[in-house]
Structures are given as C-alpha cells and as structure tokens.
Amino acid sequence: MKVVLNEEMRKIDKTTIEKYGIPGIILMENAGLGVVEEIIKDFKRDSNFTIICGRGNNGGDGFVIARHLYNKGYNVKVFIVGDSRDISKDALINFKIIQNLNINITNILDEKDLLKLKEGILSSTVVIDALFGTGLSSEVKGIASEVIKYMNKYSKYIFSVDVPSGICGDNGQVCSLAVKADKTITFGLKKCGNILYPGAEYCGELILKDIGIPREVVDLMNLKFNIITEEIVKDSIPIRKKDSHKGSYGKANVIAGSFGMTGAAILTCKSALRSGLGLLRLYIAESLNFIIKTNVPEAITVPLGEIRKGVIGINNIREILEGTKDADVLTIGPGCGNTSELSEILKRIIGEVDKPMVIDADGLNVLSKNVEWLSKKKSEIVITPHLGEMSRLTGLSIEEIKRNPIEVAKNFAQKWNVITVLKSARTIIASPKGEVFINVNGNPGMATAGCGDVLTGIITGFIAQGIEPLKAAIISVYIHGLTGDRVAEKKGEYGLVAGDIIEKLPYTIKDVIGR
Ligand SMILES: NC(=O)C1=CN([C@@H]2O[C@H](COP(=O)(O)OP(=O)(O)OC[C@H]3O[C@@H](n4cnc5c(N)ncnc54)[C@H](O)[C@@H]3O)[C@@H](O)[C@H]2O)[C@@H](O)CC1
Ligand SMILES: Nc1ncnc2c1ncn2[C@@H]1O[C@H](COP(=O)(O)OP(=O)(O)O)[C@@H](O)[C@H]1O
Ligand SMILES: [K+]
C-alpha cells in the first residue's frame, strides 16, 4: 500500500484537477462525505457536533461535513479559526453554502472568542477537527494553538479530518502541539504522518477513504514509499517443493556470540532455522561451542581458536572466508562484542565476500567507526540498526533520526548502497534505489533484549532460501512484528521475551502463506 508525503499528495490532487478535469470541489465533497459516512456509523441522530475549521481546504472539508450532517438532522455548530475573509477558493464555495443554511457559525479571532468555543465543545458529543491538514506549514502558535488546547481538554470524542491538526503529514512530528483524535479519516492515500510516531498515536483509529482520485494519477506518480501489507509478504515466500532436500533451502553462515553473549547467537540461529532455512553454520569461539550445541542442536558449529576467552581473532579469517564459498548468506554481529578483533574480521569480510550479507549489532558498532568500508563491498548487504546504532553510523542524534526516520534511512541506503533496516516502533526499510517500506505491526512488548537478534535470524533464513535481500528484509520485518503481536495477544506485552517470538514463528509463517 502506497503512502505519501504532503507534497506528493498536493501533486496528486493537482494532477487530478488539472489533467483529469475532476474539480477540486468534487474531491472536497467526496472527502466530506467520506467523513460523514464514518460519523453516522458511530453516532445517533441526537448527537451534537462542533466542527472546527481552518481557512484552507481542510476547513473546506469541514464545511462539507457541516452541511451533510445538518441535512441529516444533526445539531451542528461551526467555528472558523481566523478571519473568514481569508478562506481559500474551494473552501469558500462551501463556506458560502453553509452561510445560507441555518447553521450557527462563529469566528474565533482572539482569546475573547475562546469562551464560546469552550461552551460549544462542552455541549457537543463530537468535535470535528478540520483546522489543518497537509497544508500545515510551521509550528502552531497563537490562537490556533489555544483552539487545539481547548479541543484536547474539553472534547468527548474527536474526529480529525485527514491529519490531526498540528501533526506534520510528512513525518508525524508534533508542530508544538496537536489534536489527539479518537479517529482520523484520511483521503486518497495515507500520509507518512498518519503512520509514523508520534503522529500515528495522535490519529487514534485511522481510516482511509477513497475520494475519487483516478488510479492512473497514483500510478503516474511513481510513488516510492509503501506500507508493508500481508499481500506483499504472502506472494514472496516460495512454496517448498515435494522433491527437495535440505540443500534446497540454503546454507547460512553466521558469526555471532562471544563470552557472556552466547544468547544472541542462540536466538539468531534458532530464528534462522525456524524460518525454513536448510542448514546453518555458526562460527564460534571454541570455549563456547558446548553451550551452543546444547541449546541449538540443529546448528552446525565451527569452533574457532580464540584470542582471549570467548573471542575469536583475525587468525581465523581464512577459515571464515573459505566457508562462505558454498554459503548463500553470511550474517555477522549479534553478540560478537564491540572489539578490535571483530573490526579486523568485518573489514576483510566486507572487502572479500561476494555472497549477500547481514550486518547487525556489534557488526554495526565496529562498522560505525569505518563506514567507508561499505564502498569496498562485493555483495548486497542488509544492515539492521536500531536508533542508537543508526546514530553511531550517521553521527546524527537519536532525536534527529526520530524526527525524520524515512529520510535518514533512505539517505544512508542510497549513499552506501546498502539495504537499510532502521528498527524502531515503526521499522523502515530503505533500498539503494530510494524505495521505502514502512512496517506498521509489532508492539512495545518487543522492546526487550534479543528481539533484534531474532529479526536478524529471520532475515538470514529467508535470504539463504533464495529470496532477494530487499524482499527478505521486508518479509522478515513484517513476520517478526506480526509474531510479536500474536504473542502479545495471548501473553500480554509485559511477559513477552524474544524466545516467545521464535516459538510462534512457524505458526505465523504457516498462516501467512496459507499452508
Ligand atoms: N483539492 C485538494 O487539494 C483537496 C484537499 N483536501 C483537503 O485539504 C487539505 C489541504 O488543504 P490546504 O493545502 O488548503 O491546507 P490546510 O487546509 O491543511 O492548511 C492551510 C491553511 O492553514 C494555514 N496554516 C498553515 N500552517 C499554519 C500554522 N502553523 N499556523 C496557522 N495557520 C497555518 C494556512 O495559512 C492555510 O490557511 C487536505 O489535508 C485535505 O483535508 C480535500 O478536500 C481533498 C481535495
Ligand atoms: N514499541 C515497539 N513496537 C514495535 N516493534 C518494536 C517496538 N520496540 C521494539 N520493537 C522491535 O523489536 C526489535 C528490537 O531490536 P533491538 O533493539 O535490536 O533489540 P536487541 O538488540 O536487544 O535484540 C526491533 O525489530 C524493533 O523494531
Ligand atoms: K485536521
């Protein structure tokens, strides 16, 4: 499912109007009707409505909503924030129509008008927020910010039109303050700000309404941002053939674990195997071999000589490189320790291995001191940083990344030609070609140690099975989040641990692919 930035939505509207001849006023009518359709599902005829409109087209949608609710016999009051002489073109047509109806219209120009607004809101069952949509252009200040405070403080139930007012449609950031909606009805395509946090939380329940934008217009735009859906995932997992053997499902080599951090290796290996992988080889310091063997008997281990307790050194590089010759993927990093030994190994691997690679955790920590190594890579690489790791890789603060996660992931992917999986509550996958895939499942129960190792294992397993790395990353992130949700549904979010996701993984995959 495509998702857009404000500017892209403006272009879509403009093309629809100018090239396809559908007047903006019709789109506005459809938008307003779309909201009314939702409202009448939820609220009976005796409900009272306060509709708060800005002077742009978002306000115009509000005037349409007012007219239709009024016609249906609902009690409606309209408030316009700012001078009604500044109402924009299409919105003005709809404003003039409601002036002809017996609808109470009040201007909110300054603080002295706020008392009327407060009374209006308090006497209403529902408030419709049609103050700002995709046209919000700066921080909210002055009277508009007071209006938003009143909406949040006094409303019983808020429907936001397109985007909660005060939320930036591009990145979901709060522009000083924003409406906390119960339901948001967005039009044509979801906006990035409806999906990314904190915007997603401010939307409440998000509903997408068709407003009659021609299919061709959306196709023409060559939109690069997507929400990951089950359809994308379902069609990408290959059917297991009857006449097959373990060699048919790939060989994965994994470098993970060190003294004190064998758990990361175990979780990564188990997850890869639970994702349908044929054969897994773990390169591990010899003193840790027994722990791995007893915990993941299905893994083949390659015990390596150690430089100090539980840490392997560059002296093993020949064996590691040799081992990649018949492997389908090499994964490096989980629980390896942020050591100079790992750094030496990673440098050689990036420069010499010509198989797809997954770099996670400590692999990324050592890479962050030498990102330029990526320009020497011989193969497709997937990196899976969380916000802290991305901060180290880019030199940006976590706050800067959170403000614009799509841009940050996209820029990194394009600059270094790597598939970038930026993990957070909304994981973003960016490809070197500028495509972006946003994952919307998963839950805070997954904010627990080891869940990242599980994701790395799943990606490893799918790449080994021959799924191209970008697709493997997309599928894995979706299945990982969905499995987390299924665990949380039964166990709740508090007691969820990474191992639970591994146990449930086979069932999720079975249900997603339908066999
Ligand atoms: N033809 C179209 O473009 C359509 C637009 N639609 C609606 O129109 C919205 C976009 O309309 P617009 O582009 O007119 O923009 P908005 O109505 O979202 O906002 C623009 C208005 O808000 C003011 N404004 C912006 N930032 C402000 C700030 N920080 N403080 C105070 N005032 C501020 C502007 O001066 C302008 O009056 C969409 O979100 C959607 O709801 C729909 O009606 C469908 C068709
Ligand atoms: N609030 C949340 N909502 C959805 N997914 C989450 C949330 N918190 C964490 N996750 C997911 O859990 C995983 C955590 O990974 P990471 O931080 O690398 O953990 P670790 O390094 O301990 O294994 C990521 O895939 C992330 O997207
Ligand atoms: K709005």
UniProtKB/TrEMBL annotation:
CDD domains: YXKO-related
Pfam family, one: Carb_kinase
Swiss-Prot/TrEMBL keywords: ATP-binding, Isomerase, Lyase, Metal-binding, Multifunctional enzyme, NAD, NADP, Nucleotide-binding, Potassium
Residues annotated for K(+) binding in this entry: 58, 129, 165
PROSITE patterns: YJEF_C_2, YJEF_C_3, YJEF_N
Protein residues bound to AMP: 423-427, 452
GO terms, molecular function: ADP-dependent NAD(P)H-hydrate dehydratase activity; ATP binding; metal ion binding; NAD(P)HX epimerase activity
Binding site for (6S)-NADPHX: 57-61, 133-139, 162, 264, 335, 386, 453
UniProt domain YjeF N-terminal: residue ranges: 9-219
Cofactor note: Binds 1 potassium ion per subunit.
GO biological process, one term: nicotinamide nucleotide metabolic process
Residue span, YjeF C-terminal domain: 229-512
Reactions the enzyme catalyzes: (6R)-NADPHX = (6S)-NADPHX; (6R)-NADHX = (6S)-NADHX; (6S)-NADHX + ADP = AMP + phosphate + NADH + H(+); (6S)-NADPHX + ADP = AMP + phosphate + NADPH + H(+)
EC number assigned by the record: 4.2.1.136, 5.1.99.6
Cofactor: Mg(2+); K(+)
Function according to Swiss-Prot or TrEMBL: Catalyzes the dehydration of the S-form of NAD(P)HX at the expense of ADP, which is converted to AMP. Together with NAD(P)HX epimerase, which catalyzes the epimerization of the S- and R-forms, the enzyme allows the repair of both epimers of NAD(P)HX, a damaged form of NAD(P)H that is a result of enzymatic or heat-dependent hydration.
Assembly and oligomerization: Homotetramer.
HAMAP family: NADHX_dehydratase, NADHX_epimerase
Annotated family: Belongs to the NnrD/CARKD family. Belongs to the NnrE/AIBP family.
PANTHER family with a match to the protein in the record: ATP-DEPENDENT (S)-NAD(P)H-HYDRATE DEHYDRATASE, ATP-DEPENDENT (S)-NAD(P)H-HYDRATE DEHYDRATASE FAMILY MEMBER
Protein's UniProt name: Bifunctional NAD(P)H-hydrate repair enzyme
Species for this entry: Caminicella sporogenes DSM 14501
Gene field: nnrD
